[in-house]
Design brief:
The protein is an all-alpha fold and about 425 residues long. The protein has helices at about 5, 15-45, 50-75, 90, 95-105, 110-120, 125-130, 140-155, 155-175, 175-190, 195-210, 215-225, 225-230, 235-255, 260-275, 280-295, 295-320, 320-325, 325-340, 345-380, 380-420. The longest helix has about 40 residues, at about 380-420.
């Protein structure tokens, strides 16, 4: 236990000190009124004016005592006596917490309320102004850059790199690519973006045929019988095959409605469907993906990506002016200007921010409200009383002071009325 804890000085609260001071003033006025009342009662026979003093002091004592009882009853039992309907706050601690949580829920953490207030918040404009005019030289910028650089350099390069590579690889393993490939291929077919692919395949087949005529002739010559070779029919057969294949590729290239092209399109459409719906096809694609990820070349590629990213981060952190002076900085500033001037982009960003905040409130608002309620429920009554008294107790002591003064004035009026009557 520290010295502050043993002496209790660590529990000093300026607000509590202000409450204590005002309590002394209010109590002092009450004691003073009692002393004045006793003195005036003894001197009442000397002069009629002492009657007014006694009436003022008497009524002031009554008013002060009544307000002292009312203020004290909020936080504790007056004089320690278990009088009914006193110590109101300690007894209703849980209800106060629930009421505060309900107030927070109804006025701050309701999605409709947050959405209404977010409509007037220009998130895109704020971000755009920051990006268009980045903060200049200053302690904040220098300290932030130095902190980022020190953190990047202090981290274990190999361990951090391994963590990054592992995270990327795990992310790739968790991503099922087969449906994505199927959807991409299906969208390409729907928008006829597969036609250049088919044209490229047909062109490649034609060029491959032209480059391998000798291979085709040799294959026909080896598989033809000796009679055909003796009659020279193998050469004619090879020429016919090559000519037929060449005409086929030309027809496919010229005619977009060629039957073979239609068959190829049917095959692509079936492949797109199988990639999305056929379990066997999806399993084969996942196996192929796993083999690719396990390939050492892929691991080296991921490591190269991380090293380049780390080097870029270090360079930007060590020299933010240089990082923001090149094309990257120009792109950042251009993005900031666009965010401010492009109404469509600004609306999209603001809508996204509004939905994100409203979604967070919808998802976690009840948890925050419950946290507030449970936290207050977990406090002991003395803690709740002390914190509330520290917050409003000073003003409550003014009620005692005002009650003493107002009571005295009412006593004067009553005494005057008695004399006039």
């Amino acid at each position: 236990m520290t010295l502050l804890e043993r002496t209790g000085l660590n529990r000093f609260n300026p607000a509590q000190g202000g409450v204590r001071g005002m309590r002394i003033v209010a109590t002092g006025m009450l004691v003073a009124m009692a002393a004045v009342f006793l003195a005036a009662s003894r001197l009442d026979h000397l002069h009629p004016a002492w009657g007014f003093v006694r009436a003022f002091a008497e009524a002031a004592m009554v008013g002060g005592l009544a307000d002292w009882f009312a203020v004290t009853a909020l936080f504790r039992h007056p004089l320690g006596l278990p009088i009914p309907h006193t110590a109101i706050i300690p007894k209703n601690k849980d209800r106060i917490g629930d009421t505060l949580a309900q107030f927070l829920r109804d006025n701050f953490l309701t999605p409709s309320v947050v959405a209404r207030r977010m409509r007037s918040v220009d998130v895109a404009g704020t971000i755009g102004r920051f990006l268009a005019s980045p903060p200049g030289e200053g302690r904040l910028r220098q300290g932030g850059s130095r902190l980022i650089a020190n953190v990047l350099e202090a981290l274990d390069k190999e361990r951090l790199g391994g963590m990054v590579k592992s995270a990327v690889a795990n992310r790739m393993r968790a991503l099922e690519v087969s449906p994505l490939l199927g959807q991409t291929l299906e969208a390409a077919i729907t928008e006829e973006r597969h036609i250049p692919l088919l044209d490229g395949i047909v062109t490649w087949v034609g060029r491959t045929l032209d480059a391998n005529e000798d291979l085709i002739r040799d294959m026909v010559h080896k598989r033809a019988g000796w009679v055909m070779r003796l009659a020279g029919l193998d050469e004619k057969l090879a020429e016919a095959i090559i000519d037929g294949l060449r005409r086929l590729t030309i027809d496919m290239a010229v005619d977009p409605h060629h039957p073979l092209r239609a068959k190829a399109e049917e095959g692509l459409a079936k492949l797109a469907s199988d990639l999305q719906q056929d379990p066997d096809m999806r399993a084969r694609v996942e196996e192929l993906k796993a083999e690719i990820i396990a390939n050492p070349a892929v691991a080296q590629w991921i490591e190269g990506l991380w090293e380049k990213a780390r080097a870029s981060l270090l360079n930007a952190a060590r020299n933010p002016d240089a990082a923001l002076a090149g094309r990257f900085g120009e792109a950042i500033r251009q993005l900031g200007t666009t965010l401010q001037e492009n109404p469509e982009l600004k609306g999209t960003v603001n809508q996204f921010a509004r939905r994100a905040v409203v979604g967070a409130v919808a998802s976690y608002g009840s948890g925050i409200v419950t946290l507030v309620s449970d936290t207050i429920r977990g406090w002991d009554a003395k803690t709740v009383t002390g914190r509330l008294e520290g917050a409003v107790g000073r003003d409550l002591q003014y009620i005692r002071i005002n009650g003493t003064l107002v009571g005295g004035l009412v006593g004067l009026l009553i005494h005057t009325a008695e004399l006039l009557g």
